[in-house]
Amino acid sequence: MAKDYVSSVLKSLLLILQLVFLSQHQSASASIVKFLPGFEGPLPFELETGYIGVGEEEEMQLFYYFIKSERNPEEDPLFLWLSGGPGCSSISGLLFENGPLTMKLEEYNGTLPSLVSTTYSWTKVTTQKKVINFIRPSQYTLTYHFPQTTSIIFLDQPVGTGFSYSRTQLVDKPSDSGEAKRVHEFLQKWLGKHEEFISNPLYVGGDSYSGKVVPALVQEISKGNYQCCKPPINLQGYVLGNPLTEFETDMNSRIPFAHGMALISDELYESLKIICKGKYVNVDPSNTECLKLVEEYNKCTETVNPFLILEPFYEAETPDSYIYRYLLATYWANDESVRKALQINKESIGRWIRCNLDIPYTQDIISSVPYHVDNSIDGYRSLIYSGDHDLGMPYLGTQAWIRSLNYSVIDHTDFFLNLPFLGRYRRTYANKMTFATIKGGGHTAEFKPEESSVMFQRWISGQPL
C-alpha cells in the first residue's frame, strides 16, 4: 500500500514537473513585448517575438517578430516578410522598410540608440495628404485613405540569420529550395500556435535575394494545401521588391541601365553592345576585348552607389550616410537590455549582425521564372515593384523576365499625377501580376518608404495603382 502511495506521489510530481517544463518552454517560445529599450513609453502596437522549431528534431530555431494590424487583426491579411542576402536579418524590413519603428538618425555617443515611430508602416491605416505645386500658380491638396492593413511576421531565415540558430550542427547546407520548405514548415507551426489567424488571407513577400525563395515558397504552400496539410493555409498572393530572379538576365541589364541613366558614355555602351553582344556576365574568357570593355564599365561606375544611384557610395559609416542607421541598429540589437526585452535565447548566437553573408548556402534555383508561371496558373495575385534608381537589380531586367511570360497587358499607365510618387510606370497583366516602378526609389523600400506603403496598401486593398 505504502509502495503504491509513493509510486502515485512520484507520478504526480513527474506530471507537475512536465507541466512546469512545458509552461516554461511555451512562455520562452513566444512573448508579448510591451516596451522596447530605446523607445519612449509603451509600444503603440502589439509586438510578439519568439522561436519556432523546424526540422525533424526542431533543431533549427527560427526567430520572428510579429506585429498585429492596428486596424482589425482578426480579419486583416497576414503578411510574411523575408529579407534578402541570403542572410540579412528581418530587422532590415522592420526598422528600415515597412515596419512601425525606425532608428532615430543621430550620432552615436555610446548610449543606447533611440527608436521612433514611423508613419508608413504596412500595419497602419494610412491617411496621407499631399500638396502638389504645378507650374501654374495653383495648389491641389490630395488626400489618400487606405482602409486595408496587414499583420506582419518578420522572419529571420536561413539559420544563422539575425537571431535564428541551430541547436545542432546542420547536416545539409541551407538552399533556395530547402528554405522554401523550411519556411512553409515554419508557417504551418506558427499558425498551429496562432489558430485565430488560420482563416485570414495570407500574403508572402520580400525583396532582393528573396526573389528566389518567395516564388518557390508560394508553390510549396500551394502544394501543401492540396497534398498534406489541414487546415489549408489561406494563401492569396505575394509581393516582391527589386527581386533577384534570373542572375544573367538581371546582371546583364546593369549596363543598359547605366547607359540610360547617363552613367557611361554612348561610345562605351555601343562598343559593349557590339563586342559583347548583350552578354556582360560570365563572359567567354577568349573574348578579351569584351572583358576589357566590361572592366572599363566597372571603373566608370565604381564610385556609384549601386543601391541608389542618386546617393554617393559611402565606404565608411558616418552620420551623414544612409548606412549609418545600420550601425545604430547593430549597437541596438547587441545591447543586453534589448536582447532581454526581445526574449532572445542567450545560447543562440554571439554578436548580431544585420547581414550575415558568410552563411554556407547553396543557390540551387537558377531562375524563379518557372515558379512565377506555376503560381500564375494557380491563380495567385502578385505585385512586383522596382525602385527605378537601383543599379544592383535594375528594373530593366525585371521587365525582361516579366515580358518573357507572354501575358497580355490588361491595364497600364506610364505617368501618374494623382499619387504621391509622381511619374512612374505600372502594368497589370492577365495573370493577376502587377509590375510598378517607384520614382526615385532604390534597391529596397527603405529609400521611398511612404511611396512604397501607398503602393502596397492600394494593391492589397484591390484598388488600381
Detailed description of the structure:
The protein is an alpha/beta fold and 465 residues long. Among the domains are: 34-237 and 331-385, Rossmann fold, CATH 3.40.50; 264-301, no CATH class. The chain is built from 13 helices and 16 strands. The chain has helices at 2-29, 91-96, 176-193, 210-227, 247-252, 254-260, 266-276, 288-301, 324-333, 336-342, 369-377, 395-404, 449-460, and strands spanning 30-33, 47-54, 60-67, 78-82, 101-103, 115-117, 126-133, 139-146, 151-155, 165-166, 202-207, 235-241, 381-387, 409-413, 426-429, 433-438. β15 (426-429) and β16 (433-438) form a beta hairpin. The radius of gyration is 24 Å and the shape is globular.
How would you concisely characterize the structure shown here?
This protein has 465 residues and is α/β, with parallel strands linked by helices. The chain has 13 helices and 16 strands. Among the domains are: 34-237 and 331-385, Alpha/Beta hydrolase fold, catalytic domain (Rossmann fold, 3-Layer(aba) Sandwich); 264-301, no CATH class.
Write the topology of this structure:
Layout (H helix, E strand, L loop, with lengths): L1 H28 E4 L13 E8 L5 E8 L10 E5 L8 H6 L4 E3 L11 E3 L8 E8 L5 E8 L4 E5 L9 E2 L9 H18 L8 E6 L2 H18 L7 E7 L5 H6 L1 H7 L5 H11 L11 H14 L22 H10 L2 H7 L26 H9 L3 E7 L7 H10 L4 E5 L12 E4 L3 E6 L10 H12 L5
Parallel strand pairs: 4-9, 4-11, 11-12, 12-13, 13-16
Antiparallel strand pairs: 1-2, 2-3, 3-9, 3-10, 5-6, 7-8, 14-15, 15-16
Helix pairs in contact: 3-4, 4-11, 7-8
